[in-house]
Design brief:
Its main location: other. By secondary structure, the chain is mainly alpha-helical. The chain contains 8 helices and 4 strands. It starts with a helix and ends with a helix.
Length: 320
């Protein structure tokens, strides 16, 4: 087989090009810190890295969602803590109002105090977060949920509680409606002696008690006085039921905060595991890469030397 000068040149030049390409490839890996910089570097690892990257993005999104949920739940729990204190104070006033020796002035003074507690509760029911969104309005966060009118306090908020996906298979309530907090009683609520339905509206029961306390009792007959006493007793039962409902909601919020904390820990572990997997797929093995870079650099220098020597082996130059 005859070997021409052109064939020798092409073969040697190909060796130089291949050596240079491999050397530059290792150099790119060292500069980026990645073994896989494009799908052609390792098609299998590249495809697995795409799937893993999507999982990492989802993990990050759920972590952000849990941060938002924790803020919302913590804020609601803080407001309901104040609601609990206000209801307990109202209970104390109602129990004292049941004292039959009170004068009309005493009763009127209690009514004034209860009015202040009622207004405080109304203000808490219309609480907003740091962005001006109403906490107990459901999805109608732009409108105050409770309105105080001539017929008492009415609820104008949404009827659907705000929920949030906090993990792949977990969705929780992060914003109760005003109805769930201020106009609901639990299944084990105190029943009325006459078997009628218990009052559920916290504001209505307070308004009824305030009106009763503002009614002068000195000029009333025994039947009217008994009716006023019955109103106070019913309000006392109603406040117990309302307090029990608020405490139930708070218990739910506390459980959710614990769950969010646990999910955060699991999410952190998952993120670390995913990062480790991604590193094993695409990151550089520095010891191997540096060694290969050095060896390929030597191979490239040898290829250059061979190419230089080849130039001096032309048949024409040999005939000189």
């Amino acid at each position: 087989m005859r070997i021409s000068t052109q064939m020798m040149y092409d073969q040697t030049m190909r060796g130089v090009t291949n050596a240079q390409s491999a050397w530059l490839g290792y150099g790119e890996q060292m500069s980026t810190g990645l073994r896989v910089n494009r799908p052609s570097d390792d098609p299998v690892a590249a495809s697995q890295a795409v799937v893993l990257s999507q999982a990492q993005s989802q993990t990050s999104q759920y972590a952000l969602a849990r941060t938002f949920a924790t803020q919302k739940v913590s804020l609601e729990e803080n407001v309901l803590s104040q609601v609990t204190t206000a209801i307990q104070t109202a209970q104390e006033k109602i129990v004292y109002a049941g004292n039959g020796t009170l004068s009309d002035d005493d009763r009127a003074s209690l009514a004034t105090e209860l009015s202040g507690i009622r207004d405080q509760l109304l203000n808490l029911a219309n609480s907003t977060d740091g962005n001006g969104r109403y906490i107990f309005a459901g999805y109608k966060t732009e409108t105050a949920p409770f309105t105080d009118g001539a017929d008492g306090v009415s609820y104008d908020g949404g009827n659907t509680a705000i929920t949030q996906s906090v993990d792949a298979s977990r969705t929780m309530t992060i914003g109760h409606t005003g109805t769930q907090v201020f106009n609901t009683i639990t299944s084990n609520a105190l029943a009325e002696p006459d078997k009628t339905d218990p009052e559920t509206d916290l504001f209505k029961m307070l308004d009824t008690a305030i009106a009763a306390l503002n009614t002068p009792a000195e000029d009333l007959d025994d039947d009217k006085k008994a009716e006023l006493t019955a109103v106070i007793d019913k309000t006392n039962r109603g406040l117990k039921n309302s307090l029990n409902n608020v405490l139930t909601v708070r218990s739910e919020l506390g459980t959710q905060l614990n769950e969010l904390s646990a999910l955060d820990s699991l999410g952190d572990d998952r993120a670390v595991d995913q990062k480790t997997q991604m590193s094993s797929l695409v990151d550089v093995d520095w010891n191997s890469t540096i060694s290969s870079y050095t060896m390929q650099q030597a191979a490239l220098q040898a290829a250059y030397k061979a190419f230089t020597d080849m130039q001096g082996m032309s048949l024409f130059q040999l005939n000189k």
